[in-house]
Amino acid sequence: IMSLNTNESSENYSKSSVIAAYLFFGGAIGGGLIGLIVAMLGVLEAVLQNAVLQNIVRSIVIAVLAIPGFAFFGFIVGLIPATLTGCLVAHFKLYRNHKGLSQSAIISAISTTICALLFIVFSDINFSIAVCIFSVLIGSASGYLTGLFTLPRP
């Protein structure tokens, strides 16, 4: 009986849709998260410096404008890890449930970190544990959120 249910759900599982969703949204979501962090830090800095209201509002406007820019940059930079994540998520036929979202986050964290390490190795950038930690955090959050928005329901 279990194999019949698996076959039925496999027939309805669109691997190409899952891969396309991760390709188009995975990197953008990761970049958007980075933009959101940078935006919040910029606004926080203006507030903590007791800046005049005009400077705080300027920081908020710049922050809001920065998020789509970071999302676009994340789309470009994240094409490879996001596509790799999408292929693996589709291969394992993950769904939008606790198990599927957790596995999507783990797969994305690993693929993002591998790509970051390869970038470090093939460029003149010195190795940094901070880059690895940041890639794990952004990759896992992006994988989870992309799955939350795009994976099919079980």
Helix content: over 70%
- Structural class call reads mainly alpha
Low-confidence stretches: 1-8
Mean pLDDT: 90
Q: What general form does the structure show?
A: globular
Number of H- or I-type helical stretches = 6
Number of strands: 0
Task: State the distance separating the first and last CA atoms.
Answer: 17 Å
> What is the N-to-C order of secondary-structure elements (H for helix, E for strand)?
HHHHHH
Q: What is the strand content? A: under 5%
Radius of gyration: 18 Å
* Major beta-sheet overview: none
Characterise the protein shown here.
The protein is an all-alpha fold. Helices cover 84% and strands 0% of the residues. The protein has helices at residues 2-12, 15-48, 53-77, 79-91, 98-121, 129-150. The longest helix has 34 residues, at 15-48. The model is unreliable at 1-8 (pLDDT under 50).
